[in-house]
Design a protein that fits this description.
Bound molecules: cytidine-5'-monophosphate
Helix content: 40-55%
Shape: globular
Strand content: 15-25%
Distance between the termini: 14 Å
Radius of gyration: 17 Å
Strand order of the largest sheet: 2-6-1-7-8
Largest sheet: 5 strands, parallel
Structural class: alpha/beta
Number of strands: 8
Order of helices and strands: EHEHEEEHHEHEHHEH
Amino acid sequence: MPGYKLAIDGPAGSGKSTISSLIAKKLGWTHIDTGAMYRAVTLQAIELNIDLNNEASYHFLETSNIHYDNNRIYIDDRDVTEAIRNEAVTNNVSLVSSFPYVRKKLVELQKNAAQKGNIVMDGRDIGTVVLPNADLKIFLTANVEERAQRRHNEQLKKGKTSEMSKVIEDILKRDQKDSTRKESPLRIASDAILLDTTYLTIEEVVNKIIELTDKKE
Ligand code: C5P
């Protein structure tokens, strides 16, 4: 049985990963965070010291093995779940994910990963490109101040330093790059349900989406 496919897209800081992960836990489904995959490619590219601006440099993807296991992300056998959140990765991931070659490779992996079982997949192009036939498509959004506040709190909770004005600037830069790139830009699928989470708690959003999956079964 192919299973239920739930696609969750949205801009940076809209809560996609947190919400997708909680839904997956509650329902016993598999969560695939595609942003983490683009981040893993970016981390590997930085470590290999390749020219990040040259699409041909990314041919290392022919032999690298980026995969998920139990909600952790790996490059080959190395767990990079924490390493992919560093600043250098965050600052370069929109550039890396703009290359058609990189997207083609990752979309292939994502389509394969979604084949078996019940899946919650989150990203920017899940409803439009990766899972165009998903059973339910959600587009999460929230105003930029709220998204920045969430990122800011997350950083402080991890014991890192954070400055609100810089977080807002970074989010706006990434939104701009992700929604204006040529290849699979961030946009709402015509059959997606738009959910503005600015004034909702995480729990409210999770419950709302689970309610919607029930209706669509
Ligand atoms: O979700 P997260 O913010 O970790 O994603 C990091 C970056 O990866 C995004 O800013 C975007 O450039 C890229 N991305 C993408 N397509 C996806 C998921 C993420 O281009 N499906």
